[in-house]
Amino acid sequence: MDSKKKPDDKPVRRSQAWFGKQDRDGFMHRSWLKNQGYPHDLLDGRPVIGICNTWSELTPCNGHFRDLAEFVKRGVYEAGGFPLEFPVMSLGETQMRPTAMLFRNLASMDVEESIRGNPIDGVVLLMGCDKTTPSLMMGAASCDLPTIGLSGGPMLNGKFRGRDVGSGTGVWQMSEMVRAGEMTMEEFTAAESCMHRSSGTCMTMGTASTMASMVEALGMSLPENAAIPAVDTRRHRLAQLTGRRIVEMVKEDLRMSKILTRQAFENAIRTNAAIGGSTNAVVHLLAIAGRMGIPLTLEDFDKLGAEMPCILNLQPSGKYLMEDFFYAGGLPAVLREIASRLHLDAPTVNGKTLGENIANAACYDREVIKTPEEPFMADAGIAVLRGNLAPNGAVIKPSAASAHLLKHRGRAVVFENIEDFHARIDDPELDVDEHCVMVLKNCGPRGYPGMAEVGNMPLPPKVLQKGITDMVRISDGRMSGTAYGTVVLHTSPEAAAGGTLALVKNGDIIELDVAARRLHLEVSDEELARRRADWQAPDVPKRGWYKLYVEHVQQAHLGADLDFLVGSSGAAVPRESH
Ligand code: FES
Ligand code: MG
Questions:
Q1: Ligand 1 close to Cβ of residue 129 (< 6 A)
Q2: Which ligand is closest to the CA of 205, given by its number?
Q3: Among 53, 434, 507, 538, which lies 20 to 30 A Cα-Cα from 134?
Q4: pLDDT value of residue 9
Q5: Most ligand 1 atoms within 8 A of CB, residue of 59, 167, 171, 211 to mutate
Q6: What is the pLDDT of residues 482-507, one digit of tens each?
Q7: Average pLDDT score over residue span 390-395
Q8: Is residue 4 over pLDDT 60?
Q9: Which architecture characterizes domain 383-541+548-556 according to CATH?
Q10: Domain 46-156+198-358 of CATH type 3.10.180.10
């Protein structure tokens, strides 16, 4: 039904398969919609724009999205379209247990089927909190209609007792101060209402800001999408312009597959290095590329990101916050600095190339946005490690790590799961010092399940009390994009899938050499084979989503999508419902 031409050469829109029918079914599709007060002529064949909304009071980062949608609607009406807002599963990073990541793929199915099953010609994706961006991008990609992204924008800078405090990053810092006896619980509690004081997403370069930057670097949003604060009226203007633009995109038949090319993903990977973005971008970009049928591997992150400088001085790697980033010029200014390493002819949703979009971008604050010549940090791309401990790879973010630990050999202190970790980490009898390597098992896609953000394990109090704030840590989990430290993540295969990680024992020696991209367990193959013979796979869930997820989730190096969701089914109009 898509894009077929009528004899008079006007395109027959997808939505007309519902609203254009002069029969009983057409009556039903139109009449029930009219109970919301819409006049008949809105159903005359103009582009119907679905506004895919992840608003939820349980996703506080997206709590302002119903307001934002109203501005999108203004733009859609102005451009001659008909906007219809619809909700999809909303994943709140800070509330959902065992981890919002367990439901990313589920939400993507909701998005995909909600788009395909409804009378929609084009889609606006309202995205904010960490998992809401990849789940919407993945689901929409599997439909491939004309689609434009709009992020909710970051919160204003956190302000606590005269200083800036960043989402997440400040929590990790202050909770360690409480554990080290340097901060009282009263002060810690007082900081809660100071850190998060406006609508919006985490204002550090955590996963939400990273993914908003990825959306912009991929060409999937209008310029400036990543950094305009949620409460700045320029965010509303951007929403209105986004609404106008999607109507034109439907007329131009500018589908996601025309934007999300291999070049676009290469631009995104390089941008992620330049902004010191989250390691979570790795699993999300791999999963989105998988939906588009774009070949993208873990190696691409290392190859394309290696030798990329980080030029953004933002927490958790640096000092400033997203509000500062916007005033300094936002993502267009960063992209212009690294322009020589980008595919500037990559198309974007506004109909211009990436190069055209950033041609006049300027930097207004060199403290915040540096240059490749004098970067904030050299060689900052995500490094992919290999070795007998991670035959399919593991990742580390060098810009968030301690330089003196990037090459390290130490004795393993092993935790079987996160409960085991919490039960023993504060025990003064725990045999651990700062030279040890903390190993956490069973936090991967199948093991947790859902690949939780627990990889940045808090340090033992007796190490913290020496003033030491970093140790080498290894797991098959992820870490929050707001976190930092010498933390090896996404180890594949994971422990619960029988990876070598499952076989590590207390006292084993582990070697980490980031420059050589090496992660090695100094245990002989024979001994590992003996341990493997004794290893027992953990129990698997018996019913429901957990069961479906564990049975079908792919390993981290493939993006942790479900095997049967990889690829696209397009958006052909399904058969009639009555
Ligand atoms: Fe929602 Fe950070 S927790 S954006
Ligand atoms: Mg997170």
A1: yes
A2: 1
A3: 538
A4: 61
A5: 167
A6: 889 999 999 999 999 999 999 999 99
A7: 98
A8: no
A9: 3-Layer(bba) Sandwich (3.50)
A10: no
Instruction: Identify which ligand lies nearest to the alpha carbon of 129.
Output: 1
Q: Which atom of ligand 1 is nearest to the CA of 60?
A: 1
The answer to whether 128 and 65 are in contact (CB under 8 A) is yes
ipTM passes above 0.85:
yes
Please give the distance, rounded to the nearest whole angstrom, from the Cα atom of residue 279 to the centre of ligand 1: 15
Q: Tokens for 128? A: 């904010």
- What is the 218 CA–ligand 2 centroid distance (Å)? 21
Burial label for 524, CB within 10 Å (0-12, 13-18, 19+), is exposed
* Helical (H) or strand (E) element with 511: strand 509-513
Residue 411 to residue 365: CA distance in whole angstroms: 44
Evaluate: CB of 230 within 6 angstroms of ligand 1.
Answer: no
The residues spanned by each domain of the chain are: 46-156+198-358, 159-195, 383-541+548-556
Type and span of the H or E element at 333: helix 330-337
Dump pLDDT digits (tens) for 130-174: 999 999 999 999 999 999 999 999 999 999 999 999 999 999 999
Pick the atom of ligand 1 nearest to 92's CA: 1
How is residue 518 written in tokens?
A: 């090496």
Q: Is 167 near ligand 1, meaning CB less than 6 Å away?
A: yes
Q: How is 79-100 classified by DSSP, letter by letter?
A: TT-EEEEEE-----TTT-SS-G
Are 279 and 246 within 8 A, CB to CB? no
Split at pLDDT 50, 70, 90, the class of 5 is: low
Q: Distance, CA 201 to ligand 1 centroid (Å)?
A: 5
Asked if the bond preceding 119 is cis, omega within 30° of 0, the reply is no
In tens, the pLDDT along 432-465 reads: 999 999 999 999 999 999 999 999 999 999 999 9
pLDDT tens profile 174-215: 998 998 899 999 999 999 999 999 999 999 999 999 999 999
Q: 94: Cβ below 6 Å to ligand 1?
A: yes
| Closest ligand to the CA of 450 | 2
Residue nearest to atom 3 of ligand 1 (CA): 93
Burial degree of 372 (CB within 10 A; 0-12, 13-18, 19+): middle
- Which residues are within 8 A (CB) of 468 and not within 5 positions of it... i.e. 6 or more apart? 434, 459
Residues with Cβ within 8 Å of 204's Cβ and at least 6 positions away in sequence, in order, are 166, 167, 168, 169, 314, 315, 316, 321, 322, 481, 482
Kindly state if the Cβ of 337 falls inside 6 Å of ligand 1: no
